[in-house]
Amino acid sequence: MEDVRGTVCVTGGTGYVASWLILRLLQHGYSVRATVRSSPAGKRDISYLTSLPGAQEKLQIFHADLNNPETFNEAIQGCTGVFHLAHPMDVEGKEPEEVVTKRALEGTLGILKACLDSKTVKRVVYTSSLATILFNSKSLEETDENTWSEVDACRSNKLVSSSYLVSKTVVERTALEFAERNGLDLVTVVLPIVLGPFVCPNVPASVYMGLAPIFGDQEQCEYLVSTNMVHIDDAASAHIFLLEHANAKGRYICSSIQTTIRELYDFLSARYPELHISIPDHLMEIKGYKGTTVSSMKLWNAGFKFKCGIGEMFDGAVQSCKEKGFL
């Protein structure tokens, strides 16, 4: 794409990846329109966005909600690119699957239609999850962008709610199909657990999950038996790379580290002996289980390079938690 350093929209602007993406977009010289949900009391503190370097000159906040897709129209009108990150985060299954899926699907389709109607949006970058790939019955040794999670496998999973797994899978597939049908340039970034520093005031869900052995959350450790991870800065950089890359097309897995619970325990114990790492005994007994190998080769072949390793992921996350009083 040419001359894209104009105005871009980031939906779900208060989220972990979105807020860091806004930080990096401002540093890259973009003008950013971030959408946030209005809180019932109207007291949501978004100062961590409005106080970012360059925000006063180049960041605009718009209120929008997936329940009312038309509320995104104003933020999208006139933009050259749209990063769609907003999605209901119902990992624990507090809402019925069909309710979450309907909200996410109708909201996303409304946003994509607004992109078409704008006549200015050159590309949409949609943020997806490995949840859309890993839950299937194929028992593959290696997984890439050609693999999709199956609805039945999503519904039978005991760790993550089907509300989240099914909605993410259905929405990404539908978004790609809509784009193909209507001539909209759309690429998707498929993310694993995202770790690293954070600018938002609370510990992001993915950071908390990755730091479960440090926080002593035995239940959350279950997610880490076989884990794929990426540093927040690499995740944000991949979004910008795929907006700007002329030949980007389709899905891109963005995962740089794969580890087992045992490897993770050994790493964390050696790096942070003062934090008293704790993992349930029954998980510690699981040895050599890697699960399917997740390939980011398509992103590599496009020219993207990951810059951060597991040390930077955890050091950044731990440091932010300490600075904000969570550790």
Describe the protein's architecture and organization.
The protein is α/β, with parallel strands linked by helices. The chain has a single domain, classed as NAD(P)-binding Rossmann-like Domain (Rossmann fold, 3-Layer(aba) Sandwich). The chain has helices spanning 16-27, 47-50, 55-58, 73-76, 97-118, 151-156, 162-182, 205-210, 212-215, 232-244, 261-271, 281-284, 297-301, 310-323; strands spanning 7-11, 31-36, 59-63, 81-84, 123-129, 142-143, 186-191, 193-195, 226-231, 250-253, 257-260, 293-294. Helix 1 (16-27) packs across helix 10 and helix 5 packs parallel to helix 7 (162-182). It is globular and about 55 Å long. It starts with 6 loop residues before the first strand and ends with a helix. The model has no long low-confidence stretch (mean pLDDT 91).
Task: Report the portion of residues in β strands.
Answer: 15-25%
Number of helices: 14
Q: What is the third-level CATH name, the topology?
A: Rossmann fold
Beta-strand segment tally: 12
Mean pLDDT: 91
Mass-distribution shape: globular
Structural class: alpha/beta
- Biggest sheet statistics: 7 strands, parallel
- Name given to the CATH homologous superfamily: NAD(P)-binding Rossmann-like Domain
| H-E string | EHEHHEHEHEEHHEEHHEHEEHHEHH
Could you say what the CATH architecture is? 3-Layer(aba) Sandwich
Helix content: 25-40%
- Supply Rg: 19 Å
Low-confidence stretches: none
Q: Cα distance, first to last residue?
A: 43 Å
For the largest sheet, list the strands in their spatial order.
3-2-1-4-5-7-10
How many separate domains?
1
What would CATH call the class? Alpha Beta
